[in-house]
Amino acid sequence: MTTPPDTTDTADRAGVVGAGLTGSLLAIRLARRGIPVDLYDRRPDLRINDVDQGRSINLALSTRGLDAMARVGLAEIVQRSGVPMRGRMIHHRDAELRFQPYGTRPEHHLLSVSRDGLNIALLDAVDREPLVRTHFSARVRDVDLHSTSLILENGENSSSVPHEVVYGADGAYSAVRSRLQRTDRFSYEQAYLEHGYKELTIRPDATGGFRMEPNALHIWPRGSHMLIALPNADGTFTCTLFWPFEGDVGFDRIDTDDEILAVFEEQFPDALELMDDLAEQYRTNPTSSLVTVTCRPWHRGAEILLLGDACHAVVPFYGQGANAALEDVTVLMDCLDEHADRAAAFEAFFTRRKPDTDALAELAVDNFEEMRSRVASPVFLVQKRLERALARLFPGRFDPLYTMVTFSRRPYAESVARAQANDTLVRRLAITVLVLLLALLALVVVILVR
User: What is the tens place of the pLDDT at every residue in 179-204?
Assistant: First the structure.
């Protein structure tokens, strides 16, 4: 609906702001706990209107996100609609291809899914919940903290809608968080990368089939910049071009058709061959920024709680942004099960989740360097082979960091700590082996000299 609800019957209901992936999943989980919910979104219903959000149209779903979807009975739908990606396909400048498998076991893969398709599946599930009412084109302008009321804009009019509790799942530029930022002792930081991104598309071949290997995430690493491509079920690939805003090869510098084609001819020649309308796509599609958001605390008593990008937006380079946001809902439900008092549950959620999302934010930025540069390095390849060998020899003890983050629900911070401990142990073993080899070599030399 496009009009605000009758304010006489909302005071005992939960208000969830944001009907994206996190908010929709949260509304379902709350309703199944017997909690009446009003779900608000500033956008029109994307099932009726083509909504341009400036967001990637597909994402890589992994264990954390799939587990969250399974808990509301949507895992099978997601699996059917997604395309498995079993590793990275590295495209070198000379068009040589090199495949790097994900994980340590054959079943380890990511699932390339449509963001809108995933959102639609969740919204359809929301519609099947009798305790949830959904309000589209309902922009939250502010939050009255004293009455826990949402101040909604509807054209030139505004209305105050009271709720028992408000959940802010309205993204990196959250209106709910914006209100909390104006309270005492609320810390907030946003940091932008010097790089931005632009979406491009590789269309299917004449038969509707894929024009590259479909079961891989394709990467063109070029040091200061890169191109990636994820497969879609319709035979297309969604490409994302990551460039600096400034510099000789940057979004602020490259703007004519000749410049665009020349850069792609030099940097991504095999991709250029697959995009006949590259120059038009480049000129037409928007350029977006890459932001990391951190804040604390995530809640105000028992009345307001932030989830997902509203409190921990990350850059996309570990493929965990949506997965972490969906997992937030799982963790919150666990905390609500463990604590009868809602304020205590919210505090437990923040205490449990904050170290993990901080760790993920650092991982995501660090992985940008890996994807655009190190994946093409021979040293990197040797390291990855060693990691897989150790994981096979000592299953569960030497799992690589990527495996723990992507193919388990081990907390992010714990995964990082364990990987660091493993790295230290491996380095010590390597040094010990090297010393023994040198000692053996010295002994051989002494024997030969005698």
Answer: 999 999 999 999 999 999 999 999 99
Instruction: Please give the biggest Cα pair distance in the chain.
Output: 100
For 343-365, how does the pLDDT look when each residue is reduced to its tens digit (9 = 90+)? 999 999 999 999 999 999 999 99
Nearest to 266 by CA among 82, 449, 105, 95: 95
The C-alpha torsion from 342 through 345 and 346 to 347, rounded to 10°, is 120
* 97-101 sheet: strands from edge to edge: 97-101, 87-91, 217-221, 226-231, 237-244, 187-202, 287-296
CA distances for 135 relative to 48, 387, 394, 405, angstroms = 14, 49, 52, 35
Amino acid occupying residue 87: G
Domains, the chain, ranges and CATH?
7-83+108-189+293-368 (3.50.50.60), 191-289 (3.30.9.30), 381-449 (no CATH)
Q: What pTM, to 2 d.p., does this model score?
A: 0.90
Backbone angles phi, psi at 449, to 5 degrees: -65, -40
Beta bridge partners of 420: none
CA distances from 201 to 21, 105, 382 (A): 23, 31, 33
Q: Is 379 exposed, middle or buried (0-12, 13-18, 19+ CB in 10 A)?
A: exposed
- Alpha-carbon span 29 to 329, nearest angstrom: 8
* Phi-psi label, residue 90: left if phi above 0, alpha if psi -120 to 50, beta otherwise: beta
- Those residues whose C-beta lies under 8 Å from the C-beta of residue 433, and which sit 6 or more positions away, are none
- Bridge pairing between strands 187-202 and 237-244: antiparallel
